[in-house]
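hey can u check if this looks right to u? its 154 residues, i copy pasted from the old doc so theres a chance i mangled smth
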Amino acid sequence: MAQSAQYVTLGIAGELLAMPVERVREILDLQPIARLPGAPSHLLGMIDVRGQGVPVLDLRLKLGFMPGEDDGDTRVMVITATVAGADAVIGVKVDRVHEVTVLDSDRLEPPPGAAAGWRAETIAGIGRRNGRFVTVLDFERVFGAADIAVFELA
């Protein structure tokens, strides 16, 4: 029997999102972030992770959601994403991390194509967990060319 893909589910602005578990290196409590002058609003700055400088992006802002308030559930997920053909270590600030789980089906539905002007390329597919829709992000496409130079700092 084939093993089902596992995902880390996370919350952003009340929405349920997911990413493949193999991309997640660790999940950290929110910590002080060293700001970078002139950086785009979604790039919060840098944190130290075991002696390595890691850029931190606010996933809310990167995905076009309104800014939110940090609370006791806010986390930084340290992930590995392939950017310009190379692996980059990136911190992603999220509202909360729910669980590591499998989805109700191994098959993801394609993102809807009906919304004109909407950037669906950042979505790998739509799944379900306990009857609720889960948007599985394609992190290789979430980060654009403007982010690549910042990742090279790490």
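Strands lie at 6-12, 15-20, 24-29, 43-49, 52-58, 75-83, 86-94, 96-102, 123-129, 132-137.
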